[in-house]
Write a structure and sequence with these properties.
The chain folds into two domains: 10-55, no CATH class; 63-220, Putative cyclase (Glucose Oxidase, domain 1). Helices cover 10% and strands 24% of the residues. It is built from three helices and 13 strands. A nine-stranded mixed sheet has the order 1-13-11-5-7-9-10-4-12, with helices on one face. It has a two-stranded antiparallel ribbon with strand order 2-3. The radius of gyration is 19 Å and the shape is globular. The model has no long low-confidence stretch (mean pLDDT 97).
């Protein structure tokens, strides 16, 4: 029997104890809340369970920014509807070799209602010092173009969608101000076709929270 299900491509990094996603933010602490050995006291012989504990900031691993991340009155994670982060038609924009990805990279493309994923190739530096330095980013003009073109979500496989050498964040400001979620620190975009796939990056429904890790993935075929 032929398997007609779409092929799933994982686009997210694995979260590990001690992992640094963004310099200056604490690494996640992952440990047992209840170890298997400790659970023996609660069950009959041969039955055991583990309950894990994780302490981390929202900006860990591959994560989604909601408008609340930038704006006090913006939608938090619990208010962003699934239709805005799940099953979106996807489009990959190739930008390897560029540091500043400008509006011209998106010109002539049908972006309306789509998850626009910017493939810079920077994910190859993940978990190295090079990941944090001179990373690719979008320009303010590119963000304005994406808003005007009606993009539904914007993702990037880089350290930040903004240029972190300055203290302003125009791309976050424009995209989140228009209600467009941002997915940062992606991976695996080289595995995707330029279009013809569905994209999902759904975070948990956390009230009064603007950012949280996601299991980002694409459905191809």
């Amino acid at each position: 029997m032929t398997d007609t299900r779409p092929r799933l491509i994982d686009l997210s990094h694995t979260i590990e104890a001690g992992m640094i996603t963004y310099k200056g933010l604490p690494a996640p602490l992952i440990c047992d809340h209840l170890s298997r050995e400790a659970s023996w006291a609660n069950y009959d012989p041969g039955t055991e369970f583990q309950i894990g504990r994780i302490e981390m900031v929202g900006n860990t691993g591959t994560y989604l920014d909601s408008p609340f991340h930038r704006y006090a009155d913006g939608e938090d994670l619990s208010e962003v509807g699934l239709e805005r982060v799940a099953g979106l038609p996807g489009l990959v924009v190739r930008a390897q070799g560029l540091q500043a990805v400008d509006a011209d990279r998106f010109a002539g493309l049908d972006l309306r209602g789509k998850a626009v994923l910017v493939h810079t190739g920077w994910a190859r530096h993940w978990r190295t010092d090079a990941y944090f330095e001179d990373h690719p980013f979008l320009t303010e003009a590119a963000a304005a173009f994406l808003v005007e073109a009606g993009a539904a979500l914007v993702g990037v496989d880089s350290h930040n969608i903004d240029d972190t050498r300055t203290r302003v964040r125009p791309v976050h400001t424009r995209l989140l101000g228009a209600g467009i979620p941002i997915c940062e620190h992606m991976r695996g975009l080289e595995l995707l076709p330029d279009e013809g796939f569905r994209f999902t990056a759904a975070p948990p429904k956390v009230k009064a929270f603007g950012t949280f890790p996601v299991r980002a993935f694409a459905e191809v075929g």
